[in-house]
Write a structure and sequence with these properties.
The protein is an alpha/beta fold. The chain has a domain of 267 residues: Rossmann fold. Helix content is 40%, strand content 16%. It is built from 18 helices and 15 strands. The strands form four sheets. The chain has a seven-stranded mixed beta sheet, sandwiched between helices. Strands 8-7-6-9 form a four-stranded parallel beta sheet, sandwiched between helices. Strands 2-3 form a two-stranded antiparallel ribbon. α6 links the parallel β6 and β7. α2 crosses α11 and α11 crosses α13. The chain is globular. The protein binds pyridoxal-5'-phosphate (PLP). Pyridoxal-5'-phosphate (PLP) binds next to α13.
Amino acid sequence: MSEPTKIFLNESEIPRQWYNIAADMPHAMKPPLHPGTQQPVGPDDLSAIFPMNLVEQEVCTDRWVDIPEPVLEKLLLWRPSPLYRAKNLEKALGTPAKIYYNNEGVSPAGSHKPNTAVPQAYYNKIFGTKRLATETGAGQWGSALSFACQLFGLELKVYMVRISFDQKPFRKMMMQTWGADCVASPSLETAAGRAILAEHPDTPGSLGIAISEAIEDAVTTPNTKYALGSVLNHVMLHQTIIGLEAQKQMAMVNDYPDVVIGCAGGGSNFAGLSFPFICDKIHGKNVHVIAAEPAACPTLTRAPFLYDFGDTAKMTPLLPMHSLGHDFVPPPLHAGGLRYHGMSPLVSQLVVDGLIEPRSYHQLNCYENALLWARTEGFIPAPETSHAIAAAVEEAKRAKEEGKEKTILLNWSGHGLMDLKGYAAYLAGELSDYEYPQEDIDRALAALAQYPKP
Ligand SMILES: *Cc1c(COP(=O)(O)O)cnc(C)c1O
């Protein structure tokens, strides 16, 4: 019989613990610093905006963390997610490489983000939180958390970056369908939003601004906490269910990847797939790990590793990460979920330690590969996902040139059915590439010189 196209785990085989890479890193992540004192932040500082059970996860160094039963029960709505072999793409490329991908587009919100939205809503619920505030860029996180809050009976307010609010009305409608309240950011509802609107009434907004608004909402509204869909350690932890499933699925077909690839915005889907494999790598396995990002927002490939704020209004702790600067204004780019100035400190540290190779890809190359994918594998990828596809195709073509068999595994982080305007613009020849200017990186670096170095 021919090799399977889809590899399924039974529901009973769903991983029951998350993997915490903090237990295995050769160099521990540097501590986040308090923005005022510049001393390491303690759990009490974080508990102003997060429930204590998630703060404990944020600083946890245990290798394995049990997934609570009520969380597993909800994850089973779509997990274990299928692992696919991209046979049609392999054939179209004429490559000797085998290309596998885990399909995170099967979740209710259409991406990997519900993997952390569900546990975050659960931990808030049992802590006693009544309402959450969050930000969303392209709308993927806002819709995932809307779905999760509905499951656990929490209210949700979403600050959605203005340009996406206008360009992606369907994401907003999804949030409303799941019962959340979604407003354009900057809004008139927060002091941070009003200050920015007073200075720049026509601003398209940014994730950094929307985070400032959501945090302000959380600290000024009773029974309200803040939730973040990427970057933080507990988010990376929740996403490792992806890689743990993929490891079991690869074993079912007696295979193991030579190359593991994910696209990186804040780092969560990339970490989710790759961290269990990086654990193997730390313990001697030969596996190459690639983080694919946009050339227009080159956080890992060109931005320095330093202490920076997670938001524009400098309300978050200083995080040790690769950063383009907290006042970063996103360039025109359709992969909205990859337009963040910072990066997960865990992913950043592993890049510094040489365990991850970052690569950047231009938008037109990504769309070309997304189209090739849609026309061979059928599923239309999110523009973010197309960066991982570009890297996988590059690796598959290299395998062909070298005449080498190679096993490639990529994280298919989400579908692009809410992002068809980007495809339309590409097909109409309206998109162009954008190289992030070095002077903008230099300016951000200079502005951060006053803060400690990690
Ligand atoms: C949000 C998103 C990303 C980028 O976020 P990460 O935290 O880097 O994973 C990538 N792909 C899709 C489909 C997304 O929704």
